[in-house]
Structure formats: C-alpha cells, structure tokens
Design goal:
The protein is an alpha/beta fold. It contains 8 helices and 5 strands, in the order βαβαααβαβααβα.
Length: about 180
C-alpha cells in the first residue's frame, strides 16, 4: 500500500529558525540532495534576495518562488529549505504538501531577533524595529504555519538535535505508509 505523497522533506518556518543549517545536516544524515529555495532564486537571477526586493519588488520575488515550487513538483529525494513566506499562497502550500513531508521550524521572537542581529541580507527586516517586524511576520504567517502537522520549537535545541528529530519524524512517517 503506497502513498501518492512525495518523499521530499520540506522545512518551512520564519527566517532565523535554522532551516538552511538544519536542512544541510538532514541532507547529510540521509544522503539526499539539499536545496535552499532562496539560494536557488539567487542562482536563477544572479541577484541577492536583498537586491531582488530593492531593485524589483517583493511581488517579483514571490513570482520567482512560485516558479521554484513548480520546478520542485516533480522532484524526489530532496531536503528543501523553503523561504519563510513560500507556503503562504495556497497553491504553493498544496504543491509542497503533496511533494513530501512538511516540517515547520519555529522560534520565539526574541530568539529569532538574536539569531538575525548581524544579518544584513534580510530585506524584510529593514522596515523598522527588527523585533516588531519579526513579531508582525510571525503573526501574519501563523495561520499558514499552523497547518503544518510537524512543528519543532528550535529555541533551546542545537541544529544537530533538530536534524535528528526531523529524521525520526520522516522515518516514522514512511513506516506509517
């Protein structure tokens, strides 16, 4: 009895929760290719995410995210770190959900602010007080994040521990099929 659901592991959640760091670790543990959707977009355009936002627009960036989601649709055996807002559009959510197991990494506003204090490549953080921007983003995206079956609070966990947790979730999901 097989599942029509894909076998990718897709890490979602706000910026600063460790999707890229943890994704690379999970990819190493499982011997899978790792894709960071933001890096993919930077490769596609030859521009940093910050430049895409400043020289083009957030809407243009979201259209590129949609293109990446469509490309992922037919791919398998991946660990994917999805951009923080990638699952907000319902179409993106449906495609990603169908292509594998979604795992939301979450952290408190204080922890995210601390992790991102040295970060200059996050265009959405340049719109005022960093803590308030993070809080606002979390609140506006919570409905989408809450749909994710598996959520890991990363506040007090080391990346290696989070990665092992993800591997356990993934293996137990496969055993249930």
């Amino acid at each position: 009895m097989g599942s029509s659901k894909g076998d990718n592991i897709i890490l979602v959640g706000p910026m600063g929760v460790g999707k890229t760091t943890v994704g690379r670790l999970v990819s190493g543990l499982l011997g899978r290719e790792f894709i960071d959707t933001d890096f993919l977009i930077e490769e596609m355009t030859g521009l940093s995410i910050a430049r895409i936002f400043s020289e083009r627009s957030e809407a243009y960036f979201r259209s590129l995210e949609r293109e990446v989601v469509e490309n992922i649709k037919g791919m398998t055996n991946l660990v994917i770190a999805a951009g923080g807002g990638m699952i907000i559009p319902e179409d993106n959510y449906r495609v990603l959900h169908a292509s594998g197991v979604l795992i939301c990494l979450m952290a408190s506003v204080d922890v995210i602010a601390e992790r991102l204090k040295e970060s200059n490549g996050r265009p959405l953080l340049h719109n005022g007080d960093k803590r308030e921007v993070i809080k606002s983003h979390l609140e506006s995206r919570m409905k989408a994040y809450d749909k994710i079956e598996h959520c890991i609070d990363t506040d007090s966990l080391q990346p290696e521990s989070i990665a092992q947790n993800i591997v356990r979730i993934f293996r137990s999901r496969i055993a249930d099929v």
